[in-house]
Amino acid sequence: MSSSKRMETKLIHAGEMRPRVGGAVNLPIFQSATFEYGGEDDYHDIRYIRLNNTPNHIVLGEKLAAIESAESGLVAASGMAIISTTLLSILRNGDHILLQDCLYGGTHDFVTKDLPGLGIDYDFIDGSDPASWEKKIRKQTKAIYVEAIANPLMDVPELAAVVEFARANKIISIIDNTFASPINFRPAELGFDLSLHSCTKYLNGHSDIVAGACIGKAALVKDVKRKLNHLGGTMDPHAAFLLHRGMKTLSLRVKHQNESAQKIAEYLEKHADIGAVNYPGLESHSSHARAAKWFDGFGGMLSFELKDQDADKTDEFLKALQLPICAPSLGGVESLITRPATTSHLGLSKEDRKKIGISDSLVRFSTGIEATEDLIEDFEQALKKISAKVAR
Ligand SMILES: *Cc1c(COP(=O)(O)O)cnc(C)c1O
């Protein structure tokens, strides 16, 4: 399929097998561990599920590459499978990596607890202050790693500076693009070498599988695939089928979520009982200008605090909500709400959380595809309920 087609068309048609298998409109699930030997002369080309080369894997990889305007794509068993495998394919004993300081919890844990044991060193950088990065680079530095939108304050790093810095220093630029999704940001278009996703979130969009993807320069993706073949974090064909099905509606879902999150953020920002609201689509957000420059939409994730910042009252508020489900994860069709101090950032001490701006009363909201008005009415009734309680 011509790569000039638009996003919505690529989501449906890019990468699909031609001719269709048995004429089926949908790609079947190839539930076969092994395939007939076809004269392959490289171990990695033998057709076997763990070697990530069944039709289900190949079609998804090509579709992902097409929607992010990149050379190559690869799927894996989970976001963490692709993140750990990618880092292990690039870094060796003695190497060093620079990473943004507010990483996804699992990535932070992997980097700080597992990499040192392999002789791999790291330094954290402030993603919004490129002038400070030069001081931390070393002869051994192999890569710079950031997240498109960082959890839970929704900060966007200086993305163009990351690409320039990587080029100037001949190191690999890697971005976790999970929160933005390919609808709002396509890292390869800005020059990133590799884009990683937890497809568990927006790409699948239905909170029913875990999955991961690596998209970018063909030579690098090939190395990641070889490492994935060895480490074995392979996507199951049935999960591949669900991801493929979920991706077809990615654009419809994310565009609705962009719009809905913007309206909810504006509603919350005006509400007398609400304190700070963190959403890149708000002009008050410190990353607004950066997000507006590089993104096609501001995403479905926002966070906020009640004005009096009381953790118990915040829990009462979460209990009073009838629509959003109180659960970790994000990017699904249903709205989810959490208090990061009790979920994603439970691993940090109260002081460490405070240092990075995460109070115990901070609430993170993942906008689903419910009617925006119903979500706002639900916030309204829950806020009324808790303020009535306090007044009594
Ligand atoms: C969820 C998430 C991950 C990890 O993905 P899994 O699919 O849970 O392994 C990595 N990065 C970000 C930004 C995430 O939100």
Could you characterize the architecture of this molecule?
This protein is α/β, with parallel strands linked by helices and 392 residues long. It has two domains: 7-247, Type I PLP-dependent aspartate aminotransferase-like (Major domain) (Aspartate Aminotransferase, domain 2, 3-Layer(aba) Sandwich); 250-391, Alpha-Beta Complex (Aspartate Aminotransferase, domain 1), CATH 3.90.1150.10. It is built from 14 helices and twelve strands. The strands form two sheets. A seven-stranded mixed β-sheet has the order 1-7-6-5-4-2-3, sandwiched between helices. A five-stranded mixed β-sheet has the order 8-9-12-11-10, covered by helices on one side. The longest helix is centred in the middle third of the chain and has 21 residues, at 250-270. Pyridoxal-5'-phosphate is lined by residues 78-80, 104, 106, 147, 176, 178-179, 198, 200-201, 210, 212.
Strand order of the largest sheet: 1-7-6-5-4-2-3
CATH class bucket of the largest domain: Alpha Beta
Count of the separate structural domains: 2
Nearest-integer average pLDDT: 96
* N/C terminus separation: 65 Å
Q: What fraction strand?
A: 5-15%
Number of helices: 14
- According to CATH, the homologous superfamily of the largest domain is Type I PLP-dependent aspartate aminotransferase-like (Major domain)
- What name does CATH use for the topology of the largest domain? Aspartate Aminotransferase, domain 2
Order of helices and strands: HHEHEHEEHEHHEEHHHEHEHEEHEH
**Unreliable stretches:** none
Give the helix/strand class: alpha/beta
What is the share of helical residues?
A: 25-40%
The shape is: globular
